[in-house]
Amino acid sequence: MRNLSFMLAAVLCSVFCLSVFSTSIAQEKKMEWLNSSVNTITKTLIDKYGTEQKERIISGIKQVSEFWRTEDGGKDVFEGFIQQNFAGDKATQDELFNRLEYVFEKLDGHMNEIGREMRLQQELDLGPMLPIDELFAGYNTAAHLNDDFFANKVAFVVLLNFPLKSLEDKIAYGASWSRRQWAEVRLAERFSKRIPADVQLAVSKAAAASDQYIADYNIYMYNIINEKGEHLFPQGMRLLSHWNLRDEIKSNYADPVKNLEKQLLIQKIMERIVDQTIPEVVINNPNYDWNPYSNKVTPVAKPDPAFAIVKTEKPEMLAKAEPDTRYKMLLDDFIASKMVDPYSPTARTHIDRKFNEEREIPENRFKQILLDVLQSPLAKTIGDMIEARLGRKLQPFDIWYNGFVPKSKYTPEELDAIVRKKYPNPKSFQDDMPNILKKLGFSDEKAQFLAANIAIDPARGSGHAMGAYMREAKARLRTRVGKDGMDYKGFNIAVHEFGHNVEQTFSMHEVGNMSLQGVPNTAFTEAIAFVFQAQDLNLLGLAAPDEKTEAMKTLNDYWMTYEIAGVALIDMEIWHWMYEHQNASPAEVKAAMLMITKNIWNTYYAPVFGVKDVTILGVYSHIIHSFLYLPDYPLGHLIAFQIEEQIKKSGTIGPEVERIARQGRLLPDLWMKNAFGVHVGAESLLEATNRAVKILKK
Ligand SMILES: [Zn+2]
Fold first, then answer.
1. What distance in angstroms lies between residue 479's CA and the mean position of ligand 1's atoms?
2. What is the DSSP string of 69-132?
3. Which of 105, 187, 500, 645 satisfies CB 3.0 to 4.6 Å to 515 for a cystine?
4. CA distances from 503 to 6, 537, 637, 640, 655 (A)
5. Contact 469, 417 (CB under 8 A)
6. What count of Cα atoms within 13 Å lies in the side-chain half-sphere of residue 218?
7. Spacing, Cα 645 to ligand 1 middle (Å)
8. How confident is the model at residue 227 (pLDDT cuts 50, 70, 90)?
9. H-only helix segments in 510-585
10. Which H helix or E strand runs over 301?
11. Rounded to the nearest whole angstrom, what is the distance from the C-alpha of residue 32 to the centroid of ligand 1?
12. Domain residue spans in the chain?
C-alpha cells in the first residue's frame, strides 16, 4: 500500500531540491569578482536598510553567491539582482512571502493534477490501455522546474530572502521558531541544491543500471535441486531476489515441518547471492538445474514448461561464478553519489544528505534507536517463543518468521459477503464516508468537511491515496471495487488509504502556511493509515480483535523491526566503508560486505539464534539499488508504532488525528514532541512488546 502522494512528493522534491552549487574550481576561476562583489553589495544594503536587517542581508547574499554560476551573469548582473530583489523591510518581505506561498501552492497543486491526468488510464480501471498511455504515464512535467527557476532567478529571489538552516540549527532552535519561521525555512529548501546536469545524469544512469540489474535477478525455482536431485519447487515459479525469495520462506511457515527443506534451500541460494559464488548461468535463466549446496550446474533434464529457454552456454561456463557484478553496481552507485558532494555544501556526503536533509534525524541518534531494538532482551525471549512454536532449533532464515498470525473470528467468505452487501459500488463507499468518519470520532462538521474534500476513484491496482497539494483540489482515494461489489480485502485497503487522505486533508487545509503542508516523512502518514485500518471490523459493526490477537500482532511488529534494524545497519556501514575506501574494487566491496554482515549478525543475532557468521541479511536488493534507503524501514516501523500506541492511549481517533496532523512538516522529533510529549524512539514498541509477551504467556 504505497502512498502515491508521497512518491509524488519525493519526485517533486527531487525536482525542486536537486540543482547546482557553484563551487567547482572551474567556476571559481571564472568568477574571481564574486568575493569582492559580495562584500561591496553587503555593505551597500546594510547602509540602505539599517543594521536591523544586517543578519538577513549577510545570509541572503551568501546563499545567492553559493549558487551563482558564470552563466547567471557577471558582476553587474549579480549586484543589480541583489539590489533589486532584496526585500529590505517587513512589509515587502511579507508580501514576497505570501506571493511565493500562493504561487508554489498553485504550481504544486496543478503539477499534481497534470501528472494525475496523464497517469489516469494507467492508474484507474477505465478499460484497456493503449501503448500511448504508458508514454504519458512516464512523462514528468515537473522534471525541469528547478533548472528553470534558477535560470530565471526565481530560486535566487527565494535564497536571497529566506534562510536555509542546518539540521543542527533546526534541532537547537526549531522548537522556539514561529510557524512563519518554519515555513520560510521549508520555502528556502525548495532550492537548497543546484546539481549540474551532467552530475544528475550520472546519478540517474547508475540508478537505472542497478535497477535493471535487480529487476532481472530471478531464480527459476523448478530448476533448484536438492542433494538427491529432486525438484522441490513447483513448475512456473520464478522468484525475484530478494523479495520473492524472502516471501517464499515466509509462506512456507504454513507447514513448517514439511517445508523446512525448501526454506533451507532458499537460505543457501541467498548466501550464494551475497558471497557471489552463485553460478552466473543460473541467474534469470531456466536452462540449467542447480544444486545450491554442491553448487553444481547441469543442463536442465526436464525443462519447466512455463518458461522458454533463454540462453545456453558452453560447458566450461557452467562453473563460473557471478563476477562480483552485485558489488560493481553498488560501487557505481557510490561513485555517482559522490559526484554530488561538491555541490552540496550543507551535507558533504550522501550519508549526510540521507540523514540530515531527508530524514532530519542525526545518524548517531538513529543508530542508537536501532540498538535499543537490537540489544533488547526481548529478542531472545521472542526467539525462544518461536523455537517453541516451531518445535525445533532456530535456523538463520527464521529471522523472517511470520507465524504470529491469530485466527480470525470470521471466514474470508463471511467478511466478503458483509462488505459486498454494504458497498456494491464506489458511490456507496463515497456516500458512507461521513458515517465512517463519525464512527471514528469526528464531529458532524469535520466529517462533512473531510468527505467534501476526498473523492473516490476506481483503482486499476489494489488502491492508493493521493494528496491534492492545493486547497481547491480534492485528495483522491483510489479503491478497487469488483463487479459484485467491494470485497473485504478491498475494504481493508480502502480504510487504510482513507486514513492517508484524512491526514493529507488536515495537513494541507489546517497548517496555516502552505510551505508547511504534509508530515515529516512517510512513516507519519502510514501511522495514521494503520490506525484507520485497524478499525476495519469496528466499522463493519463486527467484534474488534481481542487482546491476544493484538499481542500477536505486536510480537510480529517487534520481530520484523529486529530483522530490518540489522539490515539498515549493514546498509549504513557499507556506505561508510565505501567513503573510507574510495578506490576499492568490487571484490573489496564484497569482502567488506561479508565482514560487515557477519559482524552485525554475530553481535545482535548470534546470541538469539546460536549460529555465527551468517550473511543472509546482506541479500536485500535495496542495498544494491536504493542508495541508502533501508534505514527508512525500521524508522517507519518505529514511528508508526509509536503514533498508533499514542492514539490508542488517547482513546479517541478523530480529534487526535486532526490535532497531530495540523502541525505539518516539522522535524520528526519536534512533531512527535508537540504531538505526544515524547521523542522518536523505540520505547513504545519495547513497552508494548513486553506487555504482549506477558499476555501470550498467561
Ligand atoms: Zn499506506
1. 13
2. -GGG--HHHHHHHHHHH---SHHHHHHHHHHHHHHHHHHHHHHHHHHHHHTHHHHB-SSPPPHH
3. 187
4. 12, 21, 18, 14, 12
5. no
6. 16
7. 17
8. very high
9. 522-533, 536-539, 547-580
10. none
11. 51
12. 4-195, 217-274+279-320, 340-403+547-697, 412-539
3-class secondary structure, 478? strand
- What pLDDT was estimated at residue 577? 98
Provide the grid cell at 566. 540489522
| Helix (H) or strand (E) run with residue 466 in it | strand 463-466
Chain length of the chain: 698
Mean of pLDDT values over 602-624:
98
Measured in Å, residue 2 CA sits from the centre of ligand 1 at 5
| Displacement of CA 562 from its chain's centroid (Å) | 18
> Nearest to residue 535, comparing CAs of 545, 547, 525, 549?
545
Q: Is the pLDDT of residue 223 over 70?
A: yes
Q: How far is CA 181 from CA 185, 189, 405, in A?
A: 6, 13, 47
Q: Could you count the other beta carbons within 10 Å of the beta carbon of residue 570? A: 21
The whole-number average pLDDT for the span 141-159 is: 94
pLDDT tens per residue across span 102-139: 999 999 999 999 999 999 999 999 989 999 998 998 88
- To which H or E segment does residue 147 belong? helix 145-151
Question: Per-residue DSSP letters for 268-300?
Answer: HHHHHHHTT-SBGGGBT-TTEEEETTTTEEEE-
Region of poorest pLDDT, from 160-164, 290-294, 306-310, 326-330: 306-310
3-state secondary structure at position 441:
coil
| 1 alpha carbon – ligand 1 mean position (Å) | 5
**Angle between helical axes of 325-340 and 547-580 (0-180°, round to 10):** 80
Sequence-ordered strand ranges (E) for 197-295: 218-220, 238-240, 288-291
Query: CA–CA separation, 11 vs 145, rounded Å?
Result: 12
Question: Residue 6: its pLDDT value, please?
Answer: 38
- Asked whether residue 678 carries a pLDDT value surpassing 50, the answer given is yes
Cβ-Cβ contacts under 8 Å for 282 (sequence gap 6 or more): 219, 220, 223, 288, 290, 297
Query: Cα(377) to centroid of ligand 1, in Å?
Result: 31
User: Parallel, antiparallel, or unpaired: how do β-strands 454-458 and 475-479 relate?
Assistant: parallel
Supply 399's cell numbers: 529471522
Rounded to 5°, angle at Cα 36 from 31 and 41: 110
d(CA 405, CA 554): 10
State yes or no: pLDDT of 694 exceeds 70. Answer: yes
Cell numbers describing residue 63: 546563499
Question: What distance in Å separates the CA atoms of residue 389 and residue 397, rounded to the nearest whole number?
Answer: 15
State mean pLDDT over 581-602.
Answer: 98
- Ligand 1 centre from 4 Cα, in Å? 9
Quick one: cell of 431? 456516500
pLDDT of residue 301: 85
Distance 502 CA to ligand 1 centre (A): 12
How many Å lie between the centroid of ligand 1 and the Cα of residue 200?
29
Neighbours of 533 (CB within 10 A): 19
SS3 label, residue 459: strand
Q: Which of 299-313, 342-356, 358-372, 466-480 has the lowest mean pLDDT?
A: 299-313
**CA separation, residue 304 to residues 92, 308, 309 (Å):** 72, 8, 9
Band of pLDDT at residue 28, cut at 50, 70 and 90: low
For ligand 1, an ion, list residues with CB under 5 A: 1, 3, 526, 529
Ligand 1 center to residue 400 CA distance, Å? Answer: 22
CB burial of residue 222 (10 Å; 0-12, 13-18, 19+) = buried
